[in-house]
Amino acid sequence: MKSYFGIVACVLWLVACPVAVGQTTPEANEMQALRTAVRADKRALVESTVRPTAAEAKKFWPIYAAYQRALDNINRRRVVAVEALIARDKAPSDLYARMLANELISTDEAEIKARRTMHNAVLKALPARRAARYLQLESKIRAVQAYDIAVAIPLIE
What we know:
There is one protein chain. The longest helix has about 35 residues, at about 55-85. The chain has five helices and no strands. It is mostly helical and about 160 residues long.
């Protein structure tokens, strides 16, 4: 149980702290700025990056909201799977490890499906270049979040 709280504290620390000391490359600085902007106001970041016209915004924001809801549901599934792993006091059985791997792959597949659905809809709401720009932005945001999670989650023993 102590290790569970330690890991949760570590995850919270990683989410709250800046990029690890020593990473001062322009790319690391850009990703840290992205992380900070997302935490402050993701929708404002998307708005300033995509810059939809009023007519485009009317079509785009419902698509954005639906995608964010889908991501929230997928993230909840991931959290449940990972928390169950972290909460265990003993090494997981082979069957449990297989089920965990299947659930994590399933959440990855659900995320890809949600991204494909969102992108197809965004292509109808925005010009292709801005739709691609939004997809790139979402991919970068997800990459930062995936990195933060990967650093915090221990490998199965």
